[in-house]
Hints:
By secondary structure, the protein is an all-alpha fold. It has helices at 3-11, 13-74, 80-97, 102-111, 124-127, 135-142, 144-152, 158-169, 190-204, 216-225, 233-241, 243-252, 268-271. Helix content is 65%, strand content 0%. Helix 3 (80-97) packs across helix 9 (190-204), helix 8 packs across helix 9 (190-204) and helix 9 runs antiparallel to helix 10. The longest helix has 62 residues, at 13-74.
Amino acid sequence: MEESKLSDYSSNPDQLKKYADDLAKVYQSEKQKRKELQVANKQLVKFADDLNKTVKELQGAYLDTINRLVLAAEYKDEDTGDHIIRMSRYSAFIAEKLGLSAREVQNIRYAAPMHDVGKIGIPDSILMKPGKLTDEEFDFMKTHSTIGATILADSKAEILQLAWQIAISHHEKWNGRGYPQGFSGDKITIAGRIVGLADVFDALTSKRPYKVPYPIEVAVDIIKKEREEHFDPDVVDVFLENIDEFVKIKEEVGSAEDVSLADFVRSERDQAGKGT
Length: 276
């Protein structure tokens, strides 16, 4: 306040009292505003907590729905639950070792189990056939990639968009001789390349209607030989450098069967290249 006005207040007690009253009102008003602001902040914190809880519940329900969709597609296989978990862990592990971001690793963790959702459209007579598939049966089996992509297409959800990429690309090969599009090298999405190797390893080392589990040594040798043919060499290198971690996951998720290497014989379906 200007010096002249202060002089006026000092010479006029009524004005001085009015000035003091005005200051008191301003103080009380500011004090009330601070209280209201504190209440508002507390309400915002509670709202944020409630919203976070709701988001987590929705995400949980969303992921549970995805898992049930996968189970519906592969429920005939008694090992399906373990297979889903292994695929999730194998794929996320490779993605992390390749240096993908934390968000990309998490998305692959959730999307990888949906790679074979299209098998819901393949007849049991083909899926569960114990022997070698005919050329016609194998051609029909291959359509599970496009069926899965059709089921997952056009979603606004980030994880389902990635699952679509995986479904359509996990049977492509580095050399361009895979299916359904015949893509090669970097034209295959990185998620498809990761899941493609994880799927082959799990299929080789698991029991199927047409085969016994392959010994780990045999599965590793097959994948090593397919470096730069079937598989992205960088993905193979991560796999080979961390094989102990893959074996650990295999042992933790479902009992790893003791398969004798001496007695092992490759199945007719795998010998014909129609096993996975």
